[in-house]
Amino acid sequence: MATGHEAVAAPSASEYIVHHLTHLTSSGHKQEKIIDFSLANVDTLIFSLAMGLAAILIMAIVARKVTSGVPGRLQAAIEFVVEMVESQSKAIVHGDRSFIAPLALTVFMWVFFMNAMDMLPVDGLPLIWQTISGDHHAYLRVVPTADLNGTLGMAMGVLLLMFWYNIKIKGIGGFVHELFAAPFGDKIFLYPFNLLLNIIEFAAKSISLGMRLFGNMYAGELIFMLIALLGATATWWGLGLQVAVGAIWAIFHILIITLQAFIFMMLTLVYIGQAHEGH
Q1: ∠225-228-231 over CA atoms, to 5°?
Q2: Residue 20, phi then psi, degrees to nearest 5
Q3: 125-149 pLDDT, tens per residue?
Q4: What is the pTM of this model?
Q5: Which one of 60, 149, 263, 274 is at 20 to 30 Å from 187 when CA atoms are compared?
Q6: Catalytic hit among 89, 166, 206, 216
Q7: Residue 216 designated active-site
Q8: Is 212 a catalytic residue?
Q9: In whole angstroms, how far apart are CA 243 and each of 11, 20, 90, 121, 173?
């Protein structure tokens, strides 16, 4: 007869990974869809906003304490990022960059901070959430960029900016004409082929932008989970491997985190820069 105090069986390796790859949803049920733009994945929404606010707070603190003398490490790092983004935007976008350069800086910092959540212990925040909620089966994923909904959402934002700058620079008439007249030529019988190719181009840019970031961060998150399973062997060699391999992967992953933020920022600049130019 059940007493209500039975020990909870330890999850298998596959159960452990599946649990950690399941989102906290607004409905409280397991998310079955890979792509769902209904904001159902509450954890992605919360951590995305939190990382955005953290980036803004750090930048604001540095701006208030900025000095013309010898800068501190944090100020020097922020100045390096700002100068890097400004130089890249100047080289890529030929036009007014009063909004584009700050936008690129925002994109880089925001994506970097969201990626950096992958450096936290795999079971850290999920265990805290399970304790707070009182449910040891509660789901929580802390890396927003490992959610395809989040990365495709950001990519759709870049797509809207591409449309906006195309219309702003060329006018709505010029943009529509370009959709039908380029790249094969301004001939009526070529209009359908031009339009189809341009639609495919815009779609490919947006989807690849989101998929690239998602794929790299999802793979990194999964590798951290596999490394965490080494410690589940309850042996000294398993624990030692977990610490050693985890440290090596964490160091390497810092490069991935930074590189993916840089690539997303650069492609955003490239796509907006292309909107300033005609075929």
Answers
A1: 155
A2: -75, -15
A3: 888 988 888 887 788 899 999 999 9
A4: 0.88
A5: 274
A6: 216
A7: yes
A8: yes
A9: 21, 20, 43, 12, 60
